[in-house]
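[#protein-structures] MJ: dropping protein-serine/threonine phosphatase here for a structure pass
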Amino acid sequence: MLTAADLSMDVGIVVNESPADEKSNFLPVFRSGSCAERGLKQYMEDEHVCIDNLVEHLGASSNFPAPGAFYGVFDGHGGTDAASFVRRNILRFIIEDSHFPICVEKAIESAFVKADYAFADDSELDISSGTTALTALIFGRTLIIANAGDCRAVLGRRGRAIEMSKDHKPICISEKLRIEKLGGVIYDGYLNGQLSVARALGDWHMKGPRGSACPLTAEPELQETNLSEEDEFLILGCDGLWDVMSSQCAVTIVRKELMLHNDAERCSRELVREALKRKTCDNVTVIVVCFSPDPPPRIEIPQFRVQRSISPEGLNLIKGHM
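AK: finished. structure tokens for protein-serine/threonine phosphatase:
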């Protein structure tokens, strides 16, 4: 596994340091809930996956460290073929990669590209369909978020929203520079006037020969952190949620709901309900992952006692007006 220093040297991986002690004995206990609604769209093109016990899912022979979990949201466009294919295969590509488990980060990056190529090779699928891909792989205390597209992962840390991914919109400065450097154009916020995201799997009608650099890429950006007692839950959502809600608002809603009923699935339903109430125009898919069997504790706001003192000069001034 790469060290934090090694990861910081890789422009594709961001290390998000937890404020907690690195020697913490905290080990997360995973439980999740999900909700997906078509919304105002004519078709449902989102896909998602929730695996709370990855060791059990893969089998004892996998040698995957426990506890382990895997989650993903895949926001399809131009049909469901790409999103469905990636949902079914992305974990397999990660586990079977030659870098796994020595360098999980490299395995994830490679898996996104391999999944993109494998989709293009499937003659029974519409390779002009596309999908964003947001995955969360957790083993022990290590959380690795990989993102290609405009889905978003947000960590709830004692009531604060910690964004674990960046929205890959064509108008994002870093994406705009990358696109234009590779000969692409952005028209009215769309990549080459066609696509509202700057990274996606599929969409092979917009990509060049395999292995060539092109404005639309399937390569993910990664963020990694070590979970601590302060990290209470993770929210994964497609842009149908984030188009109408801030990251902090979502964290506040989930924390409040968990304190009421401690049910991750009800939390995901509440976020979807709120997004629909706010008239989101897209499909809405949300996953809420809790890291403890217990609800979040109440946040105690320290009471500061303010002492006011008046100088002798000030006191004399007041007396002079009495």
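MJ: nice. Residues 1-11 have pLDDT under 50 and may be disordered.
AK: one more thing. The chain is about 30% helix and 25% strand.
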